[in-house]
Write the C-alpha coordinates for this entry.
Amino acid sequence: MTTRVLTGITTSGTPHLGNYVGAIRPAIAAARAPDVESFYFLADYHSLVKVQEPARVQRSTLEIAASWLACGLDPEQVWFYRQSDIPEIPELTWLLTCVVGKGPLNRAHAYKAAVDRNHAEGVDDDAGITAGLFMYPVLMAADILLFNADKVPVGRDQVQHIEMARDFGQRFNHLYGEHFTLPEALIEAHVATLPGLDGRKMSKSYDNTIALFAPREQLKKLIYSIVTDSKAPGEAKDADASNVFQLYQAFASADETAAMRAAFADGVGWGDAKQWLFERIDAEVAPLRERYETLIAQPQRIEAQLRDGAQRLRTRYATPTLLTLREAVGLRDLSRSGAVEHKAEIKAVLPQVKQYREADGRFYFKLVRGERVLLQSIGFDSPKDAGARIARLKREGADLLHHVSGEGVHLGEELLGKLAEDAAIEEVLGAVAALAEADA
Ligand code: TRP
Protein backbone atom coordinates (compact mmCIF):
# COMPACT_ATOMS: atom_id res chain seq x y z
CA MET A 1 0.00 0.00 0.00
CA THR A 2 1.22 3.49 -0.68
CA THR A 3 1.72 5.91 2.15
CA ARG A 4 0.63 9.46 1.65
CA VAL A 5 3.10 12.01 2.91
CA LEU A 6 2.03 15.63 2.98
CA THR A 7 3.65 18.83 4.10
CA GLY A 8 3.06 22.56 3.73
CA ILE A 9 5.54 25.41 3.62
CA THR A 10 4.30 28.77 4.84
CA THR A 11 5.12 31.42 2.26
CA SER A 12 6.34 34.10 4.58
CA GLY A 13 10.06 34.31 4.00
CA THR A 14 13.11 33.49 1.90
CA PRO A 15 14.41 29.92 2.20
CA HIS A 16 17.60 29.66 4.25
CA LEU A 17 20.16 26.93 4.87
CA GLY A 18 18.19 25.74 7.91
CA ASN A 19 15.11 25.15 5.74
CA TYR A 20 17.25 23.38 3.17
CA VAL A 21 18.91 20.97 5.60
CA GLY A 22 15.87 20.53 7.85
CA ALA A 23 13.06 20.32 5.31
CA ILE A 24 13.79 20.67 1.59
CA ARG A 25 16.65 18.22 1.21
CA PRO A 26 15.11 15.40 3.31
CA ALA A 27 11.67 15.88 1.72
CA ILE A 28 13.00 15.60 -1.81
CA ALA A 29 15.00 12.50 -0.87
CA ALA A 30 11.93 10.97 0.82
CA ALA A 31 9.74 11.62 -2.22
CA ARG A 32 11.98 9.29 -4.24
CA ALA A 33 11.19 6.33 -2.00
CA PRO A 34 8.93 3.66 -3.50
CA ASP A 35 5.35 3.35 -2.28
CA VAL A 36 4.93 6.93 -1.22
CA GLU A 37 2.63 9.49 -2.72
CA SER A 38 3.95 12.90 -1.75
CA PHE A 39 2.12 16.17 -1.42
CA TYR A 40 4.13 19.39 -1.07
CA PHE A 41 2.33 22.66 -1.07
CA LEU A 42 2.83 26.36 -0.57
CA ALA A 43 0.72 27.33 2.43
CA ASP A 44 -0.11 30.83 1.27
CA TYR A 45 -3.40 31.08 3.15
CA HIS A 46 -1.42 30.38 6.32
CA SER A 47 1.06 33.09 5.44
CA LEU A 48 -1.70 35.71 5.62
CA VAL A 49 -1.92 35.10 9.35
CA LYS A 50 1.64 36.39 9.74
CA VAL A 51 2.27 38.65 6.79
CA GLN A 52 0.02 41.42 5.61
CA GLU A 53 2.29 42.80 2.93
CA PRO A 54 0.94 41.55 -0.41
CA ALA A 55 4.22 41.99 -2.27
CA ARG A 56 6.04 39.92 0.34
CA VAL A 57 3.49 37.13 0.18
CA GLN A 58 3.85 37.01 -3.59
CA ARG A 59 7.64 37.21 -3.56
CA SER A 60 7.97 34.54 -0.90
CA THR A 61 5.63 32.20 -2.79
CA LEU A 62 7.75 32.58 -5.90
CA GLU A 63 11.04 32.12 -4.04
CA ILE A 64 9.89 29.04 -2.18
CA ALA A 65 8.42 27.43 -5.30
CA ALA A 66 11.60 28.14 -7.26
CA SER A 67 13.77 26.82 -4.41
CA TRP A 68 11.98 23.48 -4.18
CA LEU A 69 12.07 23.03 -7.92
CA ALA A 70 15.75 24.02 -8.09
CA CYS A 71 16.57 21.50 -5.36
CA GLY A 72 15.15 18.72 -7.49
CA LEU A 73 11.48 18.43 -6.67
CA ASP A 74 9.83 16.85 -9.68
CA PRO A 75 6.21 17.97 -10.16
CA GLU A 76 5.61 14.90 -12.34
CA GLN A 77 6.48 12.63 -9.41
CA VAL A 78 4.85 14.48 -6.51
CA TRP A 79 1.84 16.69 -6.03
CA PHE A 80 3.19 20.23 -5.94
CA TYR A 81 0.63 22.97 -5.55
CA ARG A 82 -0.38 26.22 -3.98
CA GLN A 83 -2.94 26.02 -1.20
CA SER A 84 -4.98 28.96 -2.49
CA ASP A 85 -5.47 27.18 -5.84
CA ILE A 86 -7.55 24.51 -4.07
CA PRO A 87 -10.88 26.08 -3.02
CA GLU A 88 -11.87 22.78 -1.43
CA ILE A 89 -9.38 23.54 1.38
CA PRO A 90 -11.23 26.58 2.77
CA GLU A 91 -14.51 24.81 2.13
CA LEU A 92 -13.41 21.87 4.25
CA THR A 93 -12.07 24.33 6.82
CA TRP A 94 -15.62 25.50 7.39
CA LEU A 95 -17.04 21.99 7.66
CA LEU A 96 -14.41 21.24 10.28
CA THR A 97 -14.90 24.57 12.05
CA CYS A 98 -18.48 23.51 12.75
CA VAL A 99 -17.46 20.31 14.55
CA VAL A 100 -14.29 21.48 16.27
CA GLY A 101 -14.48 22.60 19.89
CA LYS A 102 -13.41 26.10 20.74
CA GLY A 103 -11.68 24.76 23.86
CA PRO A 104 -8.88 22.91 22.08
CA LEU A 105 -8.24 25.98 19.95
CA ASN A 106 -7.88 28.08 23.10
CA ARG A 107 -5.11 25.70 24.11
CA ALA A 108 -3.14 25.84 20.86
CA HIS A 109 0.46 26.90 21.62
CA ALA A 110 0.69 29.80 19.19
CA TYR A 111 -2.59 31.33 20.29
CA LYS A 112 -1.86 30.76 23.96
CA ALA A 113 1.57 32.36 23.65
CA ALA A 114 -0.04 35.45 22.10
CA VAL A 115 -2.59 35.62 24.94
CA ASP A 116 0.17 35.17 27.53
CA ARG A 117 2.12 38.06 25.99
CA ASN A 118 -0.95 40.28 26.21
CA HIS A 119 -1.47 39.20 29.78
CA ALA A 120 2.11 40.07 30.69
CA GLU A 121 1.67 43.48 29.12
CA GLY A 122 -1.52 44.07 31.05
CA VAL A 123 -3.70 44.53 27.98
CA ASP A 124 -6.88 42.69 26.97
CA ASP A 125 -6.20 38.97 26.50
CA ASP A 126 -7.14 39.02 22.84
CA ALA A 127 -5.69 42.41 21.95
CA GLY A 128 -4.29 42.38 18.42
CA ILE A 129 -5.01 38.68 17.94
CA THR A 130 -6.80 37.87 14.69
CA ALA A 131 -9.36 35.13 14.30
CA GLY A 132 -6.94 33.83 11.65
CA LEU A 133 -4.35 33.00 14.30
CA PHE A 134 -7.04 31.33 16.35
CA MET A 135 -8.29 29.25 13.42
CA TYR A 136 -4.84 28.39 12.08
CA PRO A 137 -5.00 24.78 13.34
CA VAL A 138 -8.33 24.17 11.61
CA LEU A 139 -7.03 25.36 8.24
CA MET A 140 -4.00 23.16 8.72
CA ALA A 141 -6.18 20.18 9.58
CA ALA A 142 -8.13 20.76 6.36
CA ASP A 143 -4.86 20.73 4.37
CA ILE A 144 -4.02 17.36 5.81
CA LEU A 145 -7.41 15.65 6.06
CA LEU A 146 -8.59 16.62 2.57
CA PHE A 147 -5.97 14.32 1.08
CA ASN A 148 -6.12 11.64 3.77
CA ALA A 149 -2.45 12.02 4.50
CA ASP A 150 -0.90 9.23 6.57
CA LYS A 151 2.31 11.00 7.54
CA VAL A 152 3.09 14.66 7.98
CA PRO A 153 6.78 15.57 8.27
CA VAL A 154 7.02 18.64 10.47
CA GLY A 155 9.25 20.30 13.03
CA ARG A 156 8.61 19.73 16.71
CA ASP A 157 6.81 23.05 17.01
CA GLN A 158 4.09 21.70 14.72
CA VAL A 159 3.37 18.43 16.48
CA GLN A 160 0.46 19.85 18.42
CA HIS A 161 -1.14 20.89 15.13
CA ILE A 162 -0.96 17.35 13.82
CA GLU A 163 -2.51 16.05 17.01
CA MET A 164 -5.29 18.58 16.61
CA ALA A 165 -5.82 17.47 13.01
CA ARG A 166 -6.23 13.91 14.28
CA ASP A 167 -8.74 15.04 16.87
CA PHE A 168 -10.72 17.09 14.39
CA GLY A 169 -10.73 14.25 11.87
CA GLN A 170 -11.85 11.80 14.51
CA ARG A 171 -14.62 14.10 15.63
CA PHE A 172 -15.87 14.49 12.06
CA ASN A 173 -15.65 10.73 11.48
CA HIS A 174 -17.60 10.10 14.64
CA LEU A 175 -20.39 12.38 13.52
CA TYR A 176 -20.51 11.67 9.83
CA GLY A 177 -18.82 8.34 9.15
CA GLU A 178 -15.30 7.22 8.35
CA HIS A 179 -14.17 9.90 5.94
CA PHE A 180 -10.72 10.82 7.13
CA THR A 181 -7.48 9.03 7.71
CA LEU A 182 -6.00 10.15 11.02
CA PRO A 183 -2.55 11.56 10.27
CA GLU A 184 0.67 11.03 12.17
CA ALA A 185 3.47 13.52 12.65
CA LEU A 186 6.81 12.43 11.25
CA ILE A 187 9.67 14.03 13.11
CA GLU A 188 12.95 13.19 11.53
CA ALA A 189 15.17 12.59 14.53
CA HIS A 190 18.38 12.45 12.49
CA VAL A 191 17.82 15.70 10.64
CA ALA A 192 20.03 18.37 12.13
CA THR A 193 18.76 21.68 13.41
CA LEU A 194 21.24 24.16 12.02
CA PRO A 195 22.70 26.85 14.20
CA GLY A 196 22.41 30.36 12.83
CA LEU A 197 25.02 33.11 12.66
CA ASP A 198 24.74 33.82 16.39
CA GLY A 199 24.72 30.17 17.49
CA ARG A 200 20.99 29.98 18.25
CA LYS A 201 18.80 27.84 16.02
CA MET A 202 18.77 29.28 12.49
CA SER A 203 15.43 31.01 12.23
CA LYS A 204 13.88 33.98 10.55
CA SER A 205 12.56 35.15 13.89
CA TYR A 206 16.11 35.48 15.27
CA ASP A 207 17.36 37.26 12.16
CA ASN A 208 20.38 34.97 12.08
CA THR A 209 19.86 33.13 8.81
CA ILE A 210 21.99 32.43 5.77
CA ALA A 211 19.83 32.62 2.66
CA LEU A 212 19.97 29.37 0.71
CA PHE A 213 20.58 31.11 -2.58
CA ALA A 214 22.60 34.10 -1.48
CA PRO A 215 25.07 34.95 -4.27
CA ARG A 216 28.49 33.34 -3.75
CA GLU A 217 30.22 36.48 -2.46
CA GLN A 218 27.43 37.19 -0.01
CA LEU A 219 27.40 33.59 1.17
CA LYS A 220 31.11 33.93 1.92
CA LYS A 221 30.61 37.16 3.84
CA LEU A 222 27.80 35.66 5.90
CA ILE A 223 29.82 32.57 6.75
CA TYR A 224 32.76 34.71 7.81
CA SER A 225 30.41 36.60 10.14
CA ILE A 226 29.47 33.47 12.14
CA VAL A 227 30.13 34.10 15.82
CA THR A 228 32.97 32.02 17.33
CA ASP A 229 34.95 32.07 20.53
CA SER A 230 38.23 33.98 20.64
CA LYS A 231 40.63 31.02 20.57
CA ALA A 232 43.71 31.81 18.49
CA PRO A 233 45.08 29.65 15.65
CA GLY A 234 47.10 26.82 17.17
CA GLU A 235 44.80 26.47 20.19
CA ALA A 236 42.78 23.25 20.25
CA LYS A 237 39.06 23.85 19.64
CA ASP A 238 36.04 21.88 20.76
CA ALA A 239 34.27 20.73 17.60
CA ASP A 240 31.06 19.74 19.35
CA ALA A 241 30.63 23.16 20.90
CA SER A 242 31.20 24.98 17.59
CA ASN A 243 28.48 26.18 15.25
CA VAL A 244 31.03 26.29 12.42
CA PHE A 245 31.57 22.58 12.92
CA GLN A 246 27.86 21.80 13.15
CA LEU A 247 27.15 23.62 9.92
CA TYR A 248 30.02 21.80 8.23
CA GLN A 249 28.72 18.45 9.42
CA ALA A 250 25.32 19.10 7.84
CA PHE A 251 26.95 19.27 4.41
CA ALA A 252 30.03 17.05 4.66
CA SER A 253 30.52 13.31 4.28
CA ALA A 254 31.58 11.23 7.28
CA ASP A 255 35.22 11.33 6.13
CA GLU A 256 35.20 15.08 5.62
CA THR A 257 33.61 15.53 9.04
CA ALA A 258 36.28 13.37 10.68
CA ALA A 259 39.02 15.43 8.98
CA MET A 260 37.43 18.65 10.21
CA ARG A 261 37.20 17.27 13.73
CA ALA A 262 40.90 16.42 13.66
CA ALA A 263 41.70 19.93 12.39
CA PHE A 264 39.76 21.42 15.30
CA ALA A 265 41.78 19.33 17.78
CA ASP A 266 44.95 20.50 16.02
CA GLY A 267 43.99 24.12 16.48
CA VAL A 268 42.84 25.16 13.00
CA GLY A 269 42.32 28.95 12.84
CA TRP A 270 38.74 30.20 12.63
CA GLY A 271 39.47 31.89 9.29
CA ASP A 272 40.59 28.60 7.74
CA ALA A 273 37.71 26.64 9.23
CA LYS A 274 35.23 29.15 7.83
CA GLN A 275 36.89 29.02 4.42
CA TRP A 276 36.46 25.21 4.35
CA LEU A 277 32.91 25.57 5.48
CA PHE A 278 32.19 28.10 2.78
CA GLU A 279 33.74 25.95 0.05
CA ARG A 280 31.85 22.88 1.21
CA ILE A 281 28.45 24.59 1.26
CA ASP A 282 29.08 26.34 -2.01
CA ALA A 283 30.02 23.05 -3.69
CA GLU A 284 26.58 21.67 -2.88
CA VAL A 285 24.58 24.83 -3.41
CA ALA A 286 26.21 26.34 -6.53
CA PRO A 287 24.54 24.05 -9.10
CA LEU A 288 21.19 24.50 -7.37
CA ARG A 289 21.71 28.26 -7.27
CA GLU A 290 22.22 28.29 -11.00
CA ARG A 291 18.94 26.43 -11.56
CA TYR A 292 17.21 28.72 -9.10
CA GLU A 293 18.28 31.81 -10.96
CA THR A 294 17.01 30.40 -14.24
CA LEU A 295 13.69 29.44 -12.68
CA ILE A 296 13.06 32.66 -10.87
CA ALA A 297 13.65 34.62 -14.02
CA GLN A 298 10.60 32.86 -15.55
CA PRO A 299 7.82 33.24 -13.01
CA GLN A 300 5.17 32.50 -15.65
CA ARG A 301 6.52 28.95 -15.95
CA ILE A 302 6.31 28.39 -12.22
CA GLU A 303 2.82 29.88 -12.18
CA ALA A 304 1.72 27.46 -14.92
CA GLN A 305 3.29 24.50 -13.13
CA LEU A 306 1.53 25.30 -9.87
CA ARG A 307 -1.82 25.77 -11.55
CA ASP A 308 -1.44 22.55 -13.43
CA GLY A 309 -0.60 20.66 -10.22
CA ALA A 310 -3.61 22.09 -8.42
CA GLN A 311 -5.94 21.37 -11.32
CA ARG A 312 -4.91 17.74 -11.59
CA LEU A 313 -5.09 17.30 -7.85
CA ARG A 314 -8.57 18.79 -7.68
CA THR A 315 -9.85 16.52 -10.38
CA ARG A 316 -8.23 13.46 -8.89
CA TYR A 317 -9.02 14.00 -5.19
CA ALA A 318 -10.20 17.33 -3.88
CA THR A 319 -13.39 17.87 -5.87
CA PRO A 320 -14.83 14.34 -5.53
CA THR A 321 -13.90 14.27 -1.85
CA LEU A 322 -15.73 17.51 -1.18
CA LEU A 323 -18.79 16.19 -2.99
CA THR A 324 -18.85 13.21 -0.65
CA LEU A 325 -18.29 15.40 2.40
CA ARG A 326 -21.02 17.80 1.41
CA GLU A 327 -23.39 14.86 1.09
CA ALA A 328 -22.26 13.50 4.42
CA VAL A 329 -23.07 16.68 6.34
CA GLY A 330 -26.38 17.21 4.54
CA LEU A 331 -25.52 19.80 1.91
CA ARG A 332 -27.46 17.74 -0.60
CA ASP A 333 -29.45 17.73 -3.74
CA LEU A 334 -32.95 18.57 -2.54
CA SER A 335 -34.64 16.40 -5.10
CA ARG A 336 -33.22 13.24 -3.52
CA SER A 337 -34.51 11.98 -0.25
CA GLY A 338 -32.78 10.02 2.47
CA ALA A 339 -29.21 8.92 2.70
CA VAL A 340 -26.67 9.10 -0.03
CA GLU A 341 -26.70 6.96 -3.11
CA HIS A 342 -23.95 7.94 -5.43
CA LYS A 343 -25.12 6.02 -8.43
CA ALA A 344 -28.70 5.87 -9.61
CA GLU A 345 -28.26 2.31 -10.81
CA ILE A 346 -27.13 1.17 -7.37
CA LYS A 347 -30.27 2.62 -5.94
CA ALA A 348 -32.43 0.49 -8.20
CA VAL A 349 -31.08 -2.77 -6.72
CA LEU A 350 -32.51 -3.69 -3.34
CA PRO A 351 -29.98 -4.48 -0.66
CA GLN A 352 -29.98 -7.91 0.96
CA VAL A 353 -28.53 -9.57 3.99
CA LYS A 354 -26.93 -12.94 3.33
CA GLN A 355 -26.35 -15.38 6.15
CA TYR A 356 -23.90 -18.24 5.89
CA ARG A 357 -21.65 -20.57 7.80
CA GLU A 358 -17.88 -20.63 7.39
CA ALA A 359 -15.47 -23.52 7.63
CA ASP A 360 -14.58 -22.28 11.12
CA GLY A 361 -18.07 -23.38 12.20
CA ARG A 362 -19.20 -19.86 12.98
CA PHE A 363 -22.13 -17.94 11.54
CA TYR A 364 -21.74 -14.78 9.53
CA PHE A 365 -23.73 -12.36 7.49
CA LYS A 366 -22.97 -9.77 4.92
CA LEU A 367 -24.88 -6.80 3.67
CA VAL A 368 -24.80 -6.72 -0.12
CA ARG A 369 -26.27 -4.64 -2.85
CA GLY A 370 -26.18 -6.40 -6.20
CA GLU A 371 -22.59 -7.56 -6.64
CA ARG A 372 -21.29 -5.20 -4.03
CA VAL A 373 -20.48 -6.26 -0.51
CA LEU A 374 -21.00 -3.30 1.81
CA LEU A 375 -20.58 -4.76 5.26
CA GLN A 376 -19.01 -7.98 6.47
CA SER A 377 -19.99 -9.23 9.93
CA ILE A 378 -17.79 -10.86 12.52
CA GLY A 379 -18.48 -14.53 13.28
CA PHE A 380 -21.26 -15.55 15.70
CA ASP A 381 -21.77 -18.76 17.65
CA SER A 382 -25.21 -19.63 16.28
CA PRO A 383 -27.56 -18.64 13.44
CA LYS A 384 -29.81 -17.20 16.12
CA ASP A 385 -27.05 -14.89 17.36
CA ALA A 386 -26.37 -13.69 13.85
CA GLY A 387 -30.10 -13.21 13.23
CA ALA A 388 -30.47 -11.09 16.36
CA ARG A 389 -27.76 -8.75 15.09
CA ILE A 390 -29.44 -8.47 11.72
CA ALA A 391 -32.74 -7.56 13.39
CA ARG A 392 -30.96 -4.97 15.47
CA LEU A 393 -29.21 -3.59 12.41
CA LYS A 394 -32.57 -3.08 10.72
CA ARG A 395 -34.08 -1.53 13.83
CA GLU A 396 -31.27 0.72 14.92
CA GLY A 397 -29.26 0.93 11.75
CA ALA A 398 -29.44 4.70 11.58
CA ASP A 399 -27.32 4.79 14.73
CA LEU A 400 -24.48 3.06 12.95
CA LEU A 401 -23.24 6.44 11.95
CA HIS A 402 -22.26 7.17 15.52
CA HIS A 403 -20.48 3.98 16.10
CA VAL A 404 -17.91 3.75 13.41
CA SER A 405 -14.32 3.46 14.42
CA GLY A 406 -11.04 2.38 12.91
CA GLU A 407 -11.56 -1.26 13.91
CA GLY A 408 -15.01 -1.71 12.56
CA VAL A 409 -18.65 -0.84 12.51
CA HIS A 410 -20.40 -0.79 15.86
CA LEU A 411 -23.95 -0.60 17.06
CA GLY A 412 -23.93 0.68 20.59
CA GLU A 413 -21.04 -1.09 22.30
CA GLU A 414 -21.33 -4.05 20.03
CA LEU A 415 -18.92 -4.74 17.20
CA LEU A 416 -20.89 -5.85 14.15
CA GLY A 417 -18.25 -6.18 11.50
CA LYS A 418 -16.24 -4.24 8.99
CA LEU A 419 -17.02 -1.88 6.16
CA ALA A 420 -16.01 -3.28 2.80
CA GLU A 421 -12.83 -1.60 1.59
CA ASP A 422 -14.54 0.33 -1.18
CA ALA A 423 -17.78 1.12 0.62
CA ALA A 424 -18.67 4.38 2.32
CA ILE A 425 -20.65 4.49 5.53
CA GLU A 426 -23.32 6.52 3.72
CA GLU A 427 -23.81 3.62 1.38
CA VAL A 428 -24.28 1.22 4.28
CA LEU A 429 -26.71 3.59 5.93
CA GLY A 430 -28.65 3.95 2.73
CA ALA A 431 -28.82 0.18 2.34
CA VAL A 432 -29.89 -0.35 5.95
CA ALA A 433 -32.60 2.29 5.59
CA ALA A 434 -33.84 0.60 2.43
CA LEU A 435 -33.93 -2.78 4.19
CA ALA A 436 -35.90 -1.42 7.11
CA GLU A 437 -38.29 0.23 4.69
CA ALA A 438 -38.79 -3.02 2.73
CA ASP A 439 -39.59 -4.84 5.98
CA ALA A 440 -42.11 -2.27 7.12
N1 TRP B 1 2.05 25.37 9.87
C1 TRP B 1 3.14 24.79 9.11
C2 TRP B 1 4.43 25.53 9.48
O1 TRP B 1 4.38 26.65 9.90
C3 TRP B 1 2.89 24.92 7.62
C4 TRP B 1 1.72 24.11 7.20
C5 TRP B 1 0.51 24.56 6.80
C6 TRP B 1 1.66 22.69 7.17
N2 TRP B 1 -0.32 23.53 6.48
C7 TRP B 1 0.36 22.37 6.72
C8 TRP B 1 2.58 21.68 7.47
C9 TRP B 1 -0.05 21.03 6.59
C10 TRP B 1 2.17 20.36 7.35
C11 TRP B 1 0.87 20.04 6.90
O2 TRP B 1 5.47 24.94 9.34
